[in-house]
Amino acid sequence: MLLEMRCQVHSELAVIEEEEGHLEASLSQLQKAMRLDNGTQRERLSSAFHLLQLRGTLYQTPSRTEDKAAMLMQQARDMQPQDKTDRRPILIAVGLLLAPDDFQMVLDADDTSKIPVGSFGSGPVAQLFAKAQHHSTSVQKMDGHLARQGDDKDNTERVKLWATLAKTARKQEMWDVCRAACRFCLLYDDGRWKISKTDKCRCSEEESCAECHDCNGSQTCVKDLLRLLAEIHFISAEATVQKLLTEGVQLNSPAVPAVETEVCVSEDDPHWVVYR
């Protein structure tokens, strides 16, 4: 009866209807897909269905933090391309919902206005040192974030929200927000999700696991999460390269004193060593 193919067709139709703004029709297609699913797509379909339901209640405030973040994220994604300045505070608000005390401090790592004036002396090298020191200190604020959140379980929902925030910020070239979101998302790449050898897919190497009815549904979810985390690693690397370029440094190239400065900088200067 080609149930799996029919499930996938309804899932794709749901995406098309959503893009056209037909939320009720999209929900109907997702319901049909969920009825045809053999269990391997359960989490993906239920998550998509839940997010669609949230879109239909934009004027209601959900009680769960994750739902509030998802709703704000959808509002940001629905905005017109020219509304970039209006989209930024919404994306930051999503980060603040997911990490109330830590996100702003990590985001401040790229904000040079947060550096105390004259705290590390004067001169161009001292300023570079202060910038580097401020960045390191800010980023370290996220140490222990998962423990403070009491996050001792497989919180797939938050991983996906952080990943969506990173992707959306990247698309809008809000690189500081992108870097911060990537850092929080990759905290979950701590080995908590692994492909179990006992539940290893019994299909052949040539077959896709999606085509194998013997696959464990939870293992399919794990594979999707690991693929998502790998994607965020690449986005994080891209955002890091962008940060280097703003400092006038190429990837894998050593930092050298700017030739236009009149101050002679020693390579052994402790301030320069920290910045380099």
Binned strand content? under 5%
Report the uncertain regions.
200-217
Give the class from helix and strand content and strand pairing. Answer: mainly alpha
What gyration radius follows from the Cα positions, in whole Å? 23 Å
Mean pLDDT across all amino acids = 80
Number of strands: 0
Name the shape in a single word. elongated
Total domain count: 2
How are helices and strands ordered from N to C? Answer: HHHHHHHHHHHH
Helix content: 55-70%
Largest sheet: none
Distance between the termini: 63 Å
Produce a short descriptive summary:
The protein has helices spanning 3-19, 23-36, 42-55, 65-78, 84-98, 103-107, 124-139, 145-148, 156-171, 175-185, 217-246, 270-275. The protein has 276 residues and is an all-alpha fold. The longest helix is centred in the C-terminal third of the chain and has 30 residues, at 217-246.
How are the SSEs ordered, and which strands pair?
Layout lengths: L2 H17 L3 H14 L5 H14 L9 H14 L5 H15 L4 H5 L16 H16 L5 H4 L7 H16 L3 H11 L31 H30 L23 H6 L1
Helix pairs in contact: 1-2, 2-3, 4-5, 4-9, 5-9, 9-10, 9-11, 10-11
Structural overview:
The chain is 59% helix and 0% strand. It is mainly alpha-helical. Residues 200-217 have low confidence and may be disordered. It is elongated and about 75 Å long. It folds into two domains: 1-56; 100-192 and 216-255 and 265-276, no CATH class. Helix 1 runs antiparallel to helix 2 and helix 4 (65-78) runs parallel beside helix 9 (156-171).
